[in-house]
Amino acid sequence: MNPTLKKAAVPLLRWTVGLVVLMESIETAFDSAAIQHFTGAGLPRWVLMILSSSEIAAAIFFMVPVTAVAGGYALLVIFGLAAALHILHGQYNVGALLVYGAAVLASMADREAGTPEVTHDGR
Q1: Structural contact between residues 85 and 48, judged by C-beta atoms closer than 8 angstroms
Q2: Is the pLDDT of residue 9 over 70?
Q3: pLDDT at 118 over 60
Q4: What is the largest CA-CA distance in the chain?
Q5: How far is CA 84 from CA 14, 43, 49, 79, 95, in A?
Q6: Is 46 exposed, middle or buried, given 0-12, 13-18 or 19+ CB atoms closer than 10 A?
Q7: Alpha-helical runs (H) found in 31-67
Q8: Cα–Cα distance measured from residue 105 to residue 61, given in angstroms and rounded to the nearest whole number
Q9: pLDDT, tens only, 65-95
Q10: Domain count along the chain
Q11: pLDDT at res. 113
C-alpha cells in the first residue's frame, strides 16, 4: 500500500466517523420528528438529551488525537446502549451502529498498536 495513503487512512476514518456521528447526534437532539418518535416510544425526553449530548461529547473527543481512545470507548458504550434501546423497542435496524462501532474499533486498534510514522523517504 502507498505509505502516504496508509498514513492518512485511519485518521480519515476517525474524522469521518466522528463528524457523521456528531452531525447525527445534533440532528437527533434538536429535530422535532426525532424527539416525537423518541417520546412516542415511551421514553422521556431527558433520556434523549443525555444520550445525544453524551454522543456529541464522545464524538468530539474521538476526533481529537490526544483523547481519541477515551472518546472511542465512550462511543462504543453509547452505541451499545443505543442498540439495546432500539432492540428493546422492537427496532432491529442497528446496522449503522454496528458499522460505526467497527470503525471506532479499527481506529482505536491502529492507534493503540502504535503504527509507526512513515518518513518522507518511505522508510
Answers
A1: no
A2: yes
A3: no
A4: 59
A5: 24, 13, 17, 8, 12
A6: exposed
A7: 32-40, 45-63
A8: 15
A9: 899 999 999 999 999 998 998 898 888 999 9
A10: 1
A11: 66
Q: Is residue 120 part of a domain?
A: no
* Gap between the Cα atoms of 121 and 88, Å rounded: 54
Is residue 118 domain-resident? no
Closest CA to 61 of 72, 71, 47, 46: 71
pTM to 2 decimals?
Answer: 0.82
15 pLDDT above the threshold of 90: yes
* Residue 14: HSE in the Cβ half-sphere, 13 Å Cα cutoff: 27
116 Cβ contact partners less than 8 Å away, ≥ 6 residues apart: none
C-alpha grid cell, residue 55: 454522543
Inside any domain, residue 38: yes
In a domain, 61, yes or no: yes
Domain span at residue 73? 3-113
Provide the grid cell at 1.
Answer: 500500500
